[in-house]
Write a structure and sequence with these properties.
The protein is an alpha+beta fold. It has a domain of 140 residues: MucB/RseB, C-terminal domain (Phosphorylase Kinase, domain 1, 2-Layer Sandwich), CATH 3.30.200. It is 43% helix and 25% strand. The protein contains four helices and eight strands. An eight-stranded antiparallel beta sheet has the order 1-2-3-4-8-7-6-5, with helices on both faces. The longest helix has 65 residues.
Length: 221
Amino acid sequence: MTPMNPHDEALRAALRRLPRQSAPEHLKRALAERWLEPRRLNFARVARGLASVAAGAALAATVLLGWRAHTASQGLFVEAVNDHLRVLYAEHPVEIESGGVHQVKPWFAGRVDFAPALGFGGDDDFPLQGGAIALFLDRKAAAFEFKRRLHPITLFVFRAEGLAFPTASRAIGSSQAALRTERGFHVLLWRRADLGYALVSDLDEQELAVLASKIASPQAP
């Protein structure tokens, strides 16, 4: 270790003997304002920025979920038309010929995992042709075939759980239905209890709504 210079040692000893005084309050405040406040402001800016980012992320998530729900609900119309075409292209569109709804409905027992609720058995304007098993998205459906002049009409009845139905825009019987035209076909979608209904045809929109009202009438179970 280098020996300390005697003059340096004397100077240090003299400095230690000097009285120590605390800094004046105005000097402390000035230093605090100079060094501490900017840091507080920076922390505040960072906090506000993080809050804005969080709010933006929450809004984006809400919009995304809404968009997905809208897309899923609109997909029900597309599925209804596709399934209607599959029925029409089938070699045997009906698997049980109609002898009235009380003959057709029991035929579905054990073939689908629900009891199709349908009280309208057809009339002179909309005769019931029969029924068949169909698929609607990922689930089995009961397909009832009606007719209006030369226009085939398919009614799909299926379990509604887990499906996002579009916003209803039209009253049919005691229910509210959503209406859309897809590739020239009119589709009416509605839900009653735990069952969903999709009525599809190239029939005139107003006439199809008449049939939907008969199907969704209060006397229909």
